[in-house]
Amino acid sequence: MSPYSRRAFLAAAGIGLLAGCAGGDPADPADPADRADRAASTTPSAPLPSVTPPAGAARPLERSAPVALRIPAIGVDTPVVRLGLQADGSVEVPAVTADDRAGWYRYSPTPGQTGPSVLLGHVTVGKYGDGVFRRLDRLRPGDGITARLENGTTAEFAVTAVRTVGKKEFPTTDVYGNVARPELRLITCGGPLTGDEYRDNVIVFAVLTPAGER
User: Fold this and answer.
1) What does the DSSP assignment read for 33-92?
2) How far apart (Å, rounded) are the C-alpha atoms in residues 87 and 155?
3) Nearest 5 degrees, angle CA 55-CA 113-CA 124?
4) Model confidence over 37-84: pLDDT tens digits?
5) Which homologous superfamily is 3-44+64-213 in?
């Protein structure tokens, strides 16, 4: 596991993942509905094994932070901000603003590097309406995702799976665990809204295509 994916995994395993799902009125930061919801996670009981890249896997790209994300199938074309960890060790989420943006968790690999690159986005942004990942659950295997990188290149991914899981069953290993090829994870909230929290997380899994760099 790379230093980036290891740090990402340990953060998620120890604290849990904040997956942007703000609701309510963002003008009042004390409103609990403005807080992103926490997805429960568990610590793996054994070290993650090393893995061998599958035949035909795309060649990994150089490390370069993402600056924009496009998902044509659901009309997403967003700048990407960098996210780190909050004081309590939980994962940051993008700020709740009218100009909603996706965020890249900077302790994960960059899109196109070997390992799981993790991006988070809101499903709703309070009084501003829909979040950037509002339609994430509509993606289907084969849909394309393009990450534009800081070095001027792009990384092209294809969706392999879309999962909606209860937050108490958040699959930390599947999201942050070691993989032998460049992959992408997009995360938001989903399912019914109960009080000020969404019940579930929506997770999109994608893999770098063989012609993944332009």
Assistant:
1) GGSPEEEP----SSPPPP--PPTTPPPPPPP--EEEEEEGGGTEEEEEEEE-B-TTSPBP
2) 32
3) 115
4) 333 232 233 333 445 556 567 899 999 999 999 999 999 999 999 999
5) Sortase (2.40.260.10)
Token pair belonging to 86 = 């909050």
Both structure tokens of 122: 């809101």
Segment 72-129, tens digit of pLDDT: 999 999 999 999 988 888 888 888 888 899 999 999 999 999 999 999 999 988 888 8
- 182 to each of 96, 108, 187, how far by Cα in Å? 29, 11, 17
Residue 68 tokens read as 């924009």
Q: What pTM was estimated for this model as a whole?
A: 0.79
Residue 155 Cα distances to 8, 10, 110, 131, 209, angstroms: 21, 26, 10, 23, 8
The span from the CA of 61 to the CA of 97, in Å, is 32
Which tokens is 143 given? Answer: 């849909």
Q: Greatest CA separation found in the chain?
A: 52
Measuring CA to CA, how many Å separate 151 from each of 48, 63, 205? 31, 9, 24
What pLDDT does 213 receive?
A: 58
Phi, psi dihedrals of residue 211, rounded to the nearest 5° = -100, 45
